[in-house]
Design brief:
- The complex is a heterodimer.
- By secondary structure, chain A is an all-beta fold.
- Chain A contains no helices and 11 strands.
- In chain A, a hairpin with a 4-residue loop joins strand 7 and strand 8.
- In chain B, strands 1, 3, 4, 7, 8 and 9 form a 6-stranded mixed sheet that branches. Chain B has a 3-stranded antiparallel sheet with strand order 2-6-5, with no helix packed on it.
- Classes of the chains: A mainly beta, B mainly beta.
Chain lengths: ~120, ~110
């Protein structure tokens, strides 16, 4: 049973860089999955940040692409998120998730079937 | 403003059938499959329906999904009090470089 656990500072100063790590247990990060980050501002909906494959390929939300870096550390079975130049608008609960994707007759399928519990990050001085 | 459009709220009484709609475009729902997530307050989202109408193991068959053109629906039959939660639709979007897009979420209240 794959489990994910986010970790990182709960408070980041404006203009600083948010850094989070997601530890994967019960399975290998080198499996045929994408590894995603999703965030949820207080009282609002979900926003996909981006994803990485164990080989290093990444996809980012175009609205955040200029500030986001997602990396993978296969030796530690974990992946990480860095979001630069943060503002109060980046205050949110950040989730990591396992993504399954592929091409079917009905089109591209992409869903996240395992999620971490989430970690709250507040941007404030 | 979310890429996929959902009603902000829905409600029903125990035992009733409730549907939640999700509207998109040709670059997302129109060409790719739809997923639904259930989220209780203070907890992580949970995959409820994937690939339009597939239920992960453990999800009751009271939950069902469908898709037609650029819209999708989540139906909950035999509504129970424990179904009160937020529901989000999501799909892959082929525009730009590709991305996952979500609906704004629907808060389901069991009266």
């Amino acid at each position: 049973q794959v489990q994910l656990q986010e970790s990182g500072p709960g408070l980041v100063k404006p203009s600083g860089t948010l850094s989070l790590t997601c530890a994967v247990s019960g399975g290998s990060i080198s499996s045929s999955n994408w590894w995603s980050w999703v965030r949820q501002p207080p009282g609002k909906g979900l926003e996909w940040i981006g994803e990485i494959y164990h080989g290093g390929s990444t996809n980012y939300n175009p609205s955040l692409k200029s500030r986001v870096t997602i990396s993978v550390d296969k030796s530690k079975n974990q992946f990480s998120l860095k979001l630069s130049s943060v503002t109060a608008a980046d205050t949110a609960v950040y989730y990591c998730a396992r993504g399954l994707s592929g091409l079917a007759v009905a089109g591209t399928f992409y869903y996240m079937d395992v999620w971490g519990k989430g970690t709250t990050v507040t941007v404030s001085s | 403003q979310s890429v996929l459009t959902q009603p902000p709220s829905a409600s029903g009484t125990p035992g009733q059938r409730v549907t939640i709609s999700c509207s998109g475009s040709s670059s997302n729902i129109g060409s790719n499959t739809v997923n639904w997530y259930q989220q209780f307050p203070g907890t992580a989202p949970k995959l409820l329906i994937y690939s339009n109408n597939q239920r992960p193991s453990g999800v009751p068959d009271r939950f069902s999904g469908s898709k037609s053109g650029t819209s999708a629906s989540l139906a909950i039959s035999g509504l129970q009090s424990e179904d009160e939660a937020d529901y989000y639709c999501a799909a892959w979007d082929d525009s730009l470089t590709g991305r996952v897009v979500f609906g704004g979420g629907t808060k389901l209240t069991v009266l």
